[in-house]
Amino acid sequence: MRALATSLALLCAGCTGSQTVLAPMGPQAAQLNWLLWSFILICGIIWLLVMFVLVLALRYAAVPSQRGERRAAVIVGVSVAASALVIIVLTVMSYAATRGLSVAADDPLVIRLRGYQWWWEVTYTDRRPDRMLVTANEIHVPVGHPINIELSAADVIHSFWVPNLVGKQDLIPGRRNDLTFTASRPGVYRGQCAEFCGLQHAHMALLVIAEEPAAFEAWRDAQLQVARPPETIEQEAGRTFFVSQPCAACHTVRGTNAAGTLGPDLTHVASRRTIAAGLLETTRGSLAAWIADPQTIKPGNNMPMVTMTPEQLRAVSAWLVDLQ
Amino acid sequence: MMRAEAGDLQHSIAPDMRDTDLAPEVLDRQLERVWGTPATLWGILATVDHKRIGRRYVATAFIFLAMGGVLALLMRLQLAGPERRLIGPDRYNQIFTMHGANMMFLFAVPVMEAIAVYLVPLMVGTRNIAFPRLNAFSYWIYLAGGVLLWVAFALDMGPDIGWFAYVPLSGPQYGSGKRADIWAQMITFTEIAALAVAVELVVTVLKQRAPGMSLDRVPLFVWAMLVTSFCVIMAMPAIMVASTSLILDRLVGTHFYNPAEGGDVLLWQHLFWFFGHPEVYIIFLPAVGMISGILPTFARRPIFGYLPLVLALIATGILAFGLWVHHMFATGLPRLGESFFTASSMAIAIPNGVQIFCWLATLALGRPVLAAPLLFVLAFFFTFIIGGLSGVMVASVPLDTQVHDTYFVVAHFHYVLIGGAVFPLMGAIYYWFPKLTGRMMSERVGRVVCGLVFVGFNLTFFPMHILGLQGMPRRIYTYQPDMPWGGLNLFVSLSSCLLAAGFLIFFIDIMRCMRWGLPAGDNPWNAATLEWATTSPPRSYNFARIPVVSSANPLWDEPELLVSSGLRVERRELVISTVAAAVPEARDASPANSIWPFFAAIATTGMLISSIFTPWAVVWGSLPVMVTLIGWFWPKSTPEDQA
Amino acid sequence: MLLIALALLACKREARELRTDPPATDALNGVVPMANRINGGLPRIFIAQGSPYENNAYQLGQGKRLYDWFNCKGCHANGGGASGPALTDGRWRYGPDPVSIFLTIRDGRPHGMPAFANRLTTEQIWQLTGYVRTMGAYSAQTAAPSRNDEMQSRPAENRAPAATEIRMPPSR
Questions:
Q1: Chain C residues closer than 8 Å to B168 by CB
Q2: Which CATH number fits domain B50-516: 1.20.810.10, 1.20.210.10, 3.10.350.10, 3.40.50.920?
Q3: Distances, alpha carbon B14 to alpha carbons B262, B273, B541, C36, in Å
């Protein structure tokens, strides 16, 4: 079932483009899409009309007369009235859409999203503190269930935007914003920071992964586990290096001594599809490349280049890629 | 130099000599001696002739346009393919910030004011702009601000925070170094310059109009500049407050934008856009005026709907202040407030509609001649209406949440600003070039330029609408190969070459025609307004005798233009008239050339730049400013300097 | 000439070197401390790079962020000192020399200053060193960072000369 859902999702993502306004995957986005096309249609017709009149005006050989002036005045007056009418219709449509979008959902799943330069921290809230969950750059949501995202920023202004699901909303330091959406079909929807936030604004993506509720619960339970213990000697060495070196000062891996909070939580880093906020697909190779030289891959980001030997690099990447 | 000349005059001309009975040659010679600028370096620096300053302003603004265009090409080069490593994020951020700040503050607003500085006194039939020394000062300050920004950029310390400089990214904690301060201080320079010109224009238009040019006979370009100037006067203080408090936050540690100490990061956005949205109309309204100036000439009939057009200008100017929040629809403001701003943003489409319908009626009722200036106006119709309609789309809160800060918005405002302002501006250059230089521009090349720019523009910017809907955000220095944006971006980058080629030919043609263009004559287009009543290029005193106007289209309706007389010729004098009916009230002296505005600008520049580094610069930097102002206003017991 | 010199200076102060080559990082680690581990010679590459950790705004700004992130505040508070000594009074126990401060951060000091050698990279330690020096500077540097977006407990580094806080130590 899960495999089916995933492959279906990948197929959808593949055929529609994963980050686009034009392929709505939830009721909110669908409403926006409808509004978009109505506006495009109405505006397109107006533009064609005006161009038609312009061509007529250029071709029309006028004979100066009082009657012509008066007739022109009437036509201009009617056109102004008509455009005012169109404007009113569009405004009312816009209001109606706003109302439709801001209906509060009952019992939504509340997810806290915090923007950092240049990654996203995702916190799943729960009434039971031991079921709270922190992850990064990837939001899993159950299909058909309303999601309420609480947005806040740690440093500068960011903006959360997953166009397939809902319009954008800013993450502003010192303020909190809310956004409600529902994913109606399983799939992987890419989102990206939409407010200029500094050097790596271009590489601040996140994925929203909509799954069937059962798959979502399974994912959540898996994420609540501590990191799995190393199986090979190499992985063991990797963990030792990670915990004793600067890595642990910034990253948390639950189940080890690494408890830094400056970078993304890496407890299940290998279960995420991408690393470095959507920049690279998670593989052992990409992890190693990233650790070896983060400033070349994503210049200006806050991960320093830690001095290590090739063996240490191999060990750390072997351990991290095993953190499913 | 000046004093010696004044001495010569004492010998040849009796004090209080009037122009009434002078023969035309004697009058011309006298006026040239009084109003002229000597062809020396000193003369160039000291001149207060609005035509020289206006030309300078226009040329400088076009140089900035070319430089900003080069930046745009660099960005297109970087974005032509995914994950290109041509320009790093640090440089790219500087480049797009420079492009935006340069185009808005150093090109678009100044160029419109520059053309007004040149044309408005001619159009209203006076001899110089009001406060001509302030005018000279304004140019030097503008130049200093532009040079500051570009030198900083050349030294890798250009601002990298976007032309909008949102805090906290531009604030003390996240904007290290002096980059944001340079941006903020550049604002101060350009605002001083813009405010000065706005004040001059308002006074010139309201008090120096030719006898008989009542408010319903004022050319529409002059009306547009009047409304624009009022917008400048009301909008610019908001950005002055914003940028000054930003510098204070960064330099002396105030807390205007610090949420922890009771400041607010959204305060910046409110202040910025309270200026930033009227800014768009400050750029657009002069262009509207240009179209209203060009259209009647080439439709060969008076403009249709003079009164509705004036009212639409005023309505646009007022509404422009009521819709700044539509730049902030994604910040989570209360829904009711957002709804209000949706309504006001939509409503501004109505006065714009009025204008477009009136222009269409003018074309329909006239017998249009498809000369180059009119072609640019037609290009304006095609593109600006697309921009206006996409503007209606982004005015809707729900739609804006999808397209805000994407390439859709990039496309939208380039359609509005290039389509709505640069096309009319290019038309205006073709139209008024003979007046500025005495030579015609090439009609044939003009058609090629218009075609290239029009096609290049649409091919460059229309696909950006689609890119935006496909999810491409603005201000990203690159994108990943698996995003479906590569093809369109490459297409856009290639198209931008076409657009650039059009501009290149335009610039080359301007230089060529300045020297080798066909001589134009006083009124080559058979136009109706007063600037065509004098020689091309106009003499230093504009009009040997001040014309008297009895119609909105004086050169068409009056078989022979009446002139007034009675002005003194041994000093600079012009006619002051009443605000509404333009009944002559008084003769007033107009200030003579002076080097002090130049010195004052240098002193002000020193103070403003040093105050980026230490607040004490405001104290000791104001001493030289004070000295130069004392020099500027030192009473010399000559009537010129009482003005 | 003066203008060009100024411009070049400014240029150096503003450049953003985002990546340090690993060999350079290694070389930056090569301080030559005196026997008592107070004072010492700066690595040659430090000077060769143009002392970016002394006068480059970006590096100092990064240092300020590290000061926050690595909880220097936990002991030194906002520079005023708590369980750790004050940093803004311009009097350091091991002197104002950058090498001393570098060693203090890297290797720790007796009575509670932990070693950060395994928590920070060499580059970061230098950034932090540069920043700490701006906190207690006798006169504010142009490149020094400004205030943070938080509650204010003291003037920003680019403002108040710490010297105003200095009282002569009581003579014993």
A1: 149
A2: 1.20.210.10
A3: 69, 57, 20, 92
